[in-house]
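Minutes, project check-in

Agenda point 3 was the complex the collaborators sent over. CS summarized: two entities, 741 residues total, and the question is how they sit relative to each other. Sequences were read into the notes so everyone works from the same version.
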Amino acid sequence: MRKKTQGLTNYQVTAIVTCSIIGLAVLILPRLAASDAGIDGLFATASAGMVSVVLAVFIILLCKRFPNQTIIEFSQEILGKFAGRMYGAAFSFYGMLTTAVIIRGFADAMKVLLLQRTPIELLMIAMIFLCIYCVVGGISTIARVCELFVPAIIGGIGFIILFNLNDVELFRFRKVFSDGWMPILKGILSVTIAYLGYEILFFLSPVMKNKAKILPFGLAGLVFPVILYTGLVFVTLGINGEKTTSDLIYPTAQLARRINLLGAYIERLDIFFIMFWILAVFTSAIMFFYIASISVTRLAGLRNYKPFVFMLAPVIYLLAILPQNIVQINILTQAANYVGILMASSSIPLLLLSIIRKKGGNQRG
Amino acid sequence: MAKRVLLAVLVLPLLLATTSCWDQLEIEDLAFIIGLGIDHADEPGKVAVTFQIAQPKAFIAESQGTEPYWNITETAEDVTDAINLLARSINWIPTLEHCQVILLGEDLARKGLKEHLDFALRTHEVRRRVNIGVVQGKAQEVLEMKFNSGLIPSFVISEMMIQSSRYSFEVTDFMSIGNLHIAAEEDYDFILSRLVPMKDNLDMSGGAVFHDFHLVGWLSGEELMGARFLRGDISGGFLKRDLPPDMGKRVILRVFEAQSSLRPEIRDGKLYAVLNLRLEGDIEEIINPKSNLDEEEFIDKTRTLIQNCIEKTINDTYQKVKSEYESDPFLLKEKTKSFYPDFWEKNKDSWAEIYQASELEIESNIRIRRIGEINN
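CS then shared the predicted structure for the full assembly.
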């Protein structure tokens, strides 16, 4: 029997990137956009998407120079042994922190929106167990899960946008650009965090079957998030206006709750939206869990990352249970987001350094 | 064997994780509050909240005769407090998830709504589409009315609001809790639907005009029609117009399509509200037609008559709401902010005067398509 060809297909890479971007932030995205940019949040969201695409291009270009290595290994080549290891440690810390933030944010939103009496410890432990189960299966399992969930996630959010489109009051958008550039820039800064997740591209090149195709198919993973996010912000701002949108903690759940089908016979569709949203949260959590465990493994110079998955789980749980109230959760989330932006934009100096120091690029994979 | 034991030991903890929902609630344990009436209580500073609770048993065929609902009134500091009091006196858990309508008593509405809004927005139980009405009198009275259809009053009221507003110009369901939230955030005025309890039925035409979340006055059904045109929430309905003696007595137009949009225009520092409206309709009835005009002429004349009539109604409503109630429920402020951000920045402190000095311009386009199955 012929051995099956290993590695991820092109479409799986797209699915992984899409799934890892769309996650927790979907629920709060319109608030992020509206609170800083007001009605210009629409433009800020689209531009933040473009910024993310540019960052992703840099990540891919960097990875193309080292097609058989992950960031943890080739950063040591570029930066030298010590600095590279520090960078790798930062990456694994970022992975853990973001997983913790996703899991805590998920549990908190579930507590408000769906399961009021379930203790969040239980929600978090159940979610961590699921993540362990999936991550231990390896990147091909993760890829197949994403492949399976991508249509559901996109469909779920697309449905919300489509059925609310009718109530958008276009006159609100006449005001765009009237406040100058500052709010837009601020908005771009705060919406960019909603797109985080494409850092997974740092790790995909070695496991991809057709390494030459990582650029188009990796970027394709950003297309749906940009469209869906912009659509979501458009609909929320158009219906609620800027002030109300920034007042709502979970504006997307409110959008889902507005939908009435067949003349009010089918209502309270937020439950269905939350179902799809849980899928999205799950897929982005496993991605960061994977990032965390694989970077720790590679830092230790080992190949098999599976034992580390189990070792990291308690750490992630501890990080997630740490904040005592919504304010502290927000601080933790902010921290994770800023580290995330740093990590994503670190690809630019790394790429420059690798070109200057003539590392990578010429090796044949 | 050892493997099997190990497997069993491994599987057993799974049972703990797969036991069903933590938040499980049997439907029999829930008291579904389907309608809420908020009135001013006799005690100062307190509200009397009337809960209309569905009786699930009444939906089962065998238990005919039991009332499908019952009402409980609790006097408390605020609505959440009242719900807590309610939980004390019944053996079910009150839930607002299926709340259809929130009715406000006139006294309460005049005192202001803002402090009673937060509970509905903060809890995830209340939908943002819940309809709101103001009762001319006490909200409790309406919830206690008997309807011939034998249905629960809350259902009847919310159905009436939703359905009738599509077929009648004189009923509105435009404002829901979600829209009230927007109004509170963006600070604009609004019109809620008016409910007038009669001797044995309910009149839902007309509206309650609010300014700064205080009820400032009422609109009749006809005036509400004008307000709906100005607000742009209009779908269809009937228009009545007396005819001059040579044409007959009266004509009724069934409007099947109506669109309207209001936009502000600033000319020489003065605000003009420009209403663009388009109506399409068929003639439903002509009372005492005694015309010897041909169809074209008849349609033409009727069109002009109806046009004048509508424009007058709209203009009267605009003037009344603007001058008498000093309220701006037509989103004119919002639209000016959006259309002319620079103008707004400069003049936001003197908005009240600008609005008072504003003028309404109507560009109407009325089409009469058919005249029914008989000639005049």
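Noted in discussion: The CA atoms of residues 47 and 188 of chain A lie 7 Å apart.
Follow-up: revisit at the next meeting once the mutant set is ready.
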